[in-house]
Amino acid sequence: MLKHSLQFKLSQKLSPQQIQLMKLIQLPTQAFEQRLEEELVENPALENGSEETENYEEDFNDNNSDDYDDDYDNERIDAEDINIDDYLSNDETPDYKYQSNNYSDDDEDKSMPFAASVSFHQDLLNQLNTFILNDEDRNIAEFLVGSIDDMGYIRRSIQDMVDDMAFTQGVYTDEATVERILLIIQELEPAGVGARDLQECLLLQLKHKTPTDAVDLASKIIEDQFEAFSKKHYDKLLQKFDTSQEYLKKAIEEIEKLNPKPGGSYDGNQRMVEHIVPDFTIKIVEGELDLTLNGRNAPELHVSKDYQDMLKTYKVTEDKSSAQKDAVQFIKQKLDSAKWFIDAIKQRSETLFVTMNAIMHYQQEYFLDGDETLLRPMILKDIADMVGLDISTVSRVANSKYVDTPYGTKLIKDFFSESMKNDQGEDVSTIEIKNILQQVIENEDKKKPYPDDKLAEILLEKGYPIARRTIAKYRELLDIPVARLRKKI
């Protein structure tokens, strides 16, 4: 016998406006300007400039328009139910200009570009556009690009990806087709991208090299004696290929020039840089830190006077036609949307400023001195608690924004780090530990590079008790290969 029961569940759901605001907050300056241009094109009731308009801050949802949906959907509204007076107040107020001392309107600051890396996966997709592919092959190719990890590898089996495309993308294909498309992906730059393991990655890079005797021997070593090479069994390689030590050394030098993580060092490729503008500027004025938000994040916007005039015309018209009623419905939606967008920009500017201001004060010692060892351990929750915002909001501000400091332009998320205790029991930033680890590896004897356990001993001597597995983790984050791959003959 079926039983019926009633269950209550309390849940939170973001409104479409809140979702759009979160997306605006996440955008860096240049992407925000592009979004602003799109909104100006899409909404004729929104205009850019400092022209003064009539007050548009009244409550839109009066008693005569209760049926209006706050989510701005396409539900029809009875034009007779719209109280036009709510839109036509005679009290003039300033525009939403938002100029204040929390951002910079210095034209020189606005136009100074800095180099920043293009997304790894986006660049691969851009390269893919140079190939002539039908729709099915392109869908498969884009899926394969999306399956490439940050190191440049595809870690999944072909069969798994075939099944995944069928279930999640509605793309039905077979292993042979995916293998064929994978060969195209492996033609993209940087060489070695799309490999399924290290051996394939190195072979792909060697195939991109100009053929020489050394490159030919290097390819044979990787293809036929990869295990012996990985374990540095040079005597076995000399015997297998019946070659001289000098010739073997040249082949190994060719292999050492290869990148075992083609995606990991992608940021260093100057071919992939574009210009960005810092979202914030920090200056030291009379010994005090001064923060400004780039003025391009706070544009002057106002509601179109022409659209308000249309409402005035509608109000005084005695015989309102069906076309006029349809027009006033459209106008009301656009005016509501324009007001929301203006308010959202103001809220975005305030959120960016208060968040960066909290970060600046939290890391005050660093910003006054520039010494990275003065960076305090800082996590998202620390800043979220200071400003009273959600952790996800702080993350959106930090992940894609840059700040111009007296010590260079920095990605804001780089100021965040976990804490570890040194031998004195003091909390130190993991950024400091990574810098010391990198210096130790740079100064090592490349004929006898330090293994991870030796690196742990060295850092312990310097006052940082770090476990070997933590050393390995930091080394990978710094894109530094294991000791045997750093070894030179």
Descriptive overview:
The chain is an alpha+beta fold. Among the domains are: 15-64 and 85-112 and 277-416, no CATH class; 419-486, Homeodomain-like (Arc Repressor Mutant, subunit A), CATH 1.10.10. The protein is built from 21 helices and 11 strands. The strands form 4 sheets. The protein has a 5-stranded mixed beta sheet. Strands 1-7 form a two-stranded antiparallel sheet. The longest helix is centred in the C-terminal third of the chain and has 41 residues, at 322-362. The radius of gyration is 30 Å and the shape is flat. 25% of the residues are buried. Residues 52-101, 106-111 and 268-273 have low confidence and may be disordered.
Concise overview:
With 489 residues, the chain is an alpha+beta fold.
